[in-house]
Amino acid sequence: MILVINSGSSSVKYQLIDLDGPERTKPGKIENIGEPGSEVPDHEAALTRVADEVSAHSGELTAIGHRVVHGGPVFIEPTLITDEVVKHIQEAVPLAPLHNPANLAGIEVTRRLWPDLPQVAVFDTAFHSTMPLAARTYAVDHEVAQRYGLRRYGFHGTSTAYVSRVAAELVDRAGLANVIVLHLGNGASATAVAAGRCVDTSMGMTPLEGLVMGTRSGDLDPGTIFHLIRGGMAPDEVESMLIERSGLLGLCGDNDMRAVLARVESGDEAAALAYDVYCHRLRKYIGAYCAVLGEVDVIAFTGGVGENSALVRRSVLSGLEHMGIRLDPLRNMSGDAKRLISADDSDVVIAVVPTDEELEIARETSLVVSRTISE
Question: Which of 297, 301, 286 is nearest to 339 (CA)?
């Protein structure tokens, strides 16, 4: 039985997973950590509460798996946590200042609470470490890139690893299929996976690059940043705007796709433009990744928007029939969870695959522990 911990800046999500089922026990979330008036002052208190919640199963625990957003250049696979590993995760904090400190807080406390249990860090960036140099290298001064660690890392890797594997199984080509994974939530990414290995992904050195997201701009001419700074905006102000007040929110004032679609339906022009920009960028990445992969077996939609919005799926894939991508309208509207939604004559299978990052973290944690024991 694996305890999966996702320690965020103001919340801790946890879940016990017995991989023999798999069966899930005690899924929970502790929120408002450290906020005014909260009964949970810090991560120590939050994770002590988690320990109390799972205490009835403590004798069955074999390991703890932690979600860590950024592994930096060092970690290219899930890794058994040691003091040295903690040090390297700390060194990657500048690359993910909003996430890695909270991930580290969870690791620090759980190592004290369960000192005898093996604990594993599962990195969002690890799955993308197989990108070839041509895909992960920015065309900037080589010495500057080396000095500051400028390169493309990619994110949503844990989700993408799970979804791409399930998608391959859906077409009876486990481990061999070429899959485009579209993880569409408030954060959004597209990833090209060839036979189980990432060959390109839309997010880059940070989660700001790529698709239009709820509050993030995605791809942007770097010159616009210099233009804004020269115009009087402070660098921190520009960064905050691009991360927190751009994307759908910046275009129309709503970052929730459900609200955007409701406004589109009512004839709201700003929402309609935001929706069109969102779909255009996504369609462009699908076309690019068809070219990168050469042959595509599956396009898999996941994440809150990807799994639940039939309209987004229809809009994004409309006009791609000449590429062998044909959606079945009725299957697309079905409310089933995991399902195929492509037409019978589609050359490319189109699937909806609910992501399961917790199960993937548990699976990776178990593999690391088993490998460590065998060594």
Answer: 301
Annotated catalytic residue: which of 116, 124, 172, 236?
A: 124
Q: What is the pLDDT along the chain (375 residues), one digit of tens a residue?
A: 999 999 998 899 999 999 988 888 888 999 999 999 999 999 999 999 999 999 998 889 999 999 999 999 999 999 999 999 999 999 999 888 878 999 999 999 999 999 999 999 999 999 999 999 999 999 999 999 999 989 999 999 999 999 999 999 999 988 789 999 999 999 999 999 999 999 999 999 999 999 999 999 999 999 999 999 999 999 999 999 999 999 999 999 999 999 999 999 999 999 999 999 999 999 999 999 999 999 999 999 999 999 999 999 999 999 999 999 999 999 999 888 889 999 999 999 999 999 999 999 999 999 999 998 877
> What is the three-state SS of 198-236?
EEEECCCCCCCCCCCCCCCCCCCCHHHHHHHHHCCCCHH
Q: Which residues contact 268 (CB under 8 A, 6 or more apart)?
A: 252
Measure the CA–CA gap between 47 and 53, rounded to whole angstroms: 10
Strand 349-352 to 339-340 pairing: antiparallel
Distances (CA, A) of 270 to 240, 264, 341: 22, 8, 30
Q: What is the pTM of this model?
A: 0.93
The helix (H) or strand (E) run that includes residue 194 is strand 188-194
Distance CA 226, CA 353 (A): 40
Q: Answer yes or no: are the C-beta atoms of 118 and 63 closer than 8 Å.
A: yes
The H or E element spanning position 113 is: helix 100-113
CB-based contact 17:78 (threshold 8 Å)? no
* Beta carbons of 212 and 316 less than 8 angstroms apart: no
Tell me if residue 336 is catalytic: no
DSSP 260-297: HHHHHHTT-HHHHHHHHHHHHHHHHHHHHHHHHHSS-S
